[in-house]
Design goal:
82 residues; alpha+beta; YefM-like fold; three-stranded mixed β-sheet; 4 helices
Length: 82
């Protein structure tokens, strides 16, 4: 379930919202005039999301390399390393 808070809460209840970000590990959606405007997430969650994105990009690159035939055997890799 989405956590939604009005923008005034950022000013008036920042510590509570900060703790909620950390404890829920979910985005907190901030509204302005009743409409979604911004999402807040904890620093640890954003780090996790960026790590996931980087991993997905590396996996995608590997899959593209396989599709394009850009692969090497284990023996070819060993020869390049030695």
């Amino acid at each position: 379930m989405a956590i939604i808070r009005p923008s005034a809460d950022l000013r008036n209840h920042y510590k509570e919202i900060s703790e909620l970000c950390k404890s829920s590990n979910e985005p907190i959606y901030i509204t302005v005039n009743g409409k979604e405007d911004t999402a807040l997430v904890s620093a640890s969650l954003i780090d996790e999301l960026y790590q996931t994105i980087r991993l997905m990009r590396m996996i995608n690159q590997g899959l593209n390399d396989i599709q394009e035939g850009q692969t090497m055997t284990l023996e070819e890799v060993k020869k390049q390393l030695l």
